[in-house]
Amino acid sequence: MNVKKNILCIGAGYVGGPTMAVIARKCPHCRVTVVDTDAKRIEAWNSDSLPIYEPGLAETIQQTRGKNLFFRTDIERGIRENDIIFVSVNTPTKTFGVGAGMAADLHYWEKTARQILEHSQSSKIVVEKCTLPVKTALAMERILKSVPNGNNFEVLSNPEFMAEGTAIKDLEYPDRVLIGSRETESGLKARDVLTEIYTQWVPREKIITSNIWSSELSKLVANAFLAQRISSINAISALCEKTEADIKEVSKAVGMDSRIGPKFLESSIGFGGSCFKKDILNLVYLCRNYGLSEVAAYWESVVRINEYQQERFILNMLGAMFNTLSGKKICIWGVAFKANTGDTRESPAIYIARRLLEEKAEIVISDPYALVNARSDMNGAEGRISYEEDPYKAAWGCHAIAVLTEWEQYKSLDFHNIFREMIKPAFIFDGRNILDHQRCFNIGFNVYPIGKPPLTHF
Ligand SMILES: NC(=O)c1ccc[n+]([C@@H]2O[C@H](COP(=O)([O-])OP(=O)(O)OC[C@H]3O[C@@H](n4cnc5c(N)ncnc54)[C@H](O)[C@@H]3O)[C@@H](O)[C@H]2O)c1
User: Fold this and answer.
1) Ligand 1 centre from 127 Cα, in Å?
2) Whose CA is nearest to atom 11 of ligand 1?
3) pLDDT 10s digits, 269-306
4) 0.90 surpassed by pTM
5) Residue 118: in which H helix or E strand, if any?
6) Is 275 an annotated catalytic residue?
7) Backbone angles phi, psi at 156, to 5 degrees
């Protein structure tokens, strides 16, 4: 059955854009509008150079934009004309006042709730797509019901589990879609409306429903568990480096246990991205608020190990390069927080780049898609920085290469050529364990992987 709905998404970011593009493609009879206060972002969505890079996104946009997918800045009109409103605005960590550095900053979200109330001329289903502290839907309901105007607002929680870099695939073939609702008659009715949209392409058994608080909390917990696996393997990588054990071998042996599984057991410089850290800190803040200090401390340690791993990487570089980086030229391969995205939010590479500048190194940043974001992140950083998309040119005249994003193309470069053009002794610090370390060593590099014994010529 073809569903015909008028759908609005407030927030045209990494979630709003791809999510709505996939809904528009899978539900050709729905009319989907995405609005944002950022006119430049909307302009980019309407152009050939989209504001974000995601494999498969440009094709999806091409098939739908102007047909049943529209990017606009007129939020008020969008609210008036649509029945289902997804809210996908940013919910960063608070930087001020109570809960600064921990709690979610909900001011964008609350502004949206008030806009919906002010401009609605009919009843709406409001869908939380953002990641929010558990019980936020209650606040949304209270705002929406604060001025009785004859309209009914039903709030649903439908957290987004897609990952950047694989967003389109994740949205097309989700592991599950979670819809949380009030268990009232109108709540369940609204839930059915949203379920019907997803059943256009998601198998029914993968669409799960829950009470609204479980749904809000599940998203925070899913991210906390994923990040916890990364911190767990990274903590063990430090022990491997002390004991000549090899983290790849340990990770393989551990991951083959079917109770554990192999995913998210790659040791690296740590997790980044706009979500993991903020969502865990949000969880920690919630636990503290409810007096659960042991639970809060447990989850907070996941973030602390991540910071430790990045700092350890810098200290390893410093130790290997004769305890001084001052005046040395270091090439950074990869600044995106993971491969297949241009997103640099909370990227460990940005932290490491800043730390290298503090050590008075000169840095050359290379990345296939993230240089625009990197320039803006590094704006204001003191020291010598240059940007070079070509990884060969970036490494010319450098003392060391630090591999900080697991871009596939770095694996198959001509390392003979690169070695020839570098200052000797030449170093590689593989922060993602993606290179052929023995081969690089045989060429002449001193190679420092993560969680494995280094291969050096000294
Ligand atoms: N990025 C991810 O991988 C991911 C995955 C799952 C969930 N989430 C969650 O989804 C939410 C959005 O994340 P994102 O990465 O898309 O953020 P983003 O910063 O890329 O996009 C948010 C957009 O909302 C817009 N906005 C803010 N207030 C607005 C308002 N009042 N009216 C209209 N537009 C407004 C901003 O201008 C921005 O373009 C967050 O809660 C995040 O935690 C993100």
Assistant:
1) 14
2) 130
3) 999 999 999 999 999 999 999 999 999 999 999 999 99
4) yes
5) helix 107-119
6) yes
7) -120, 155
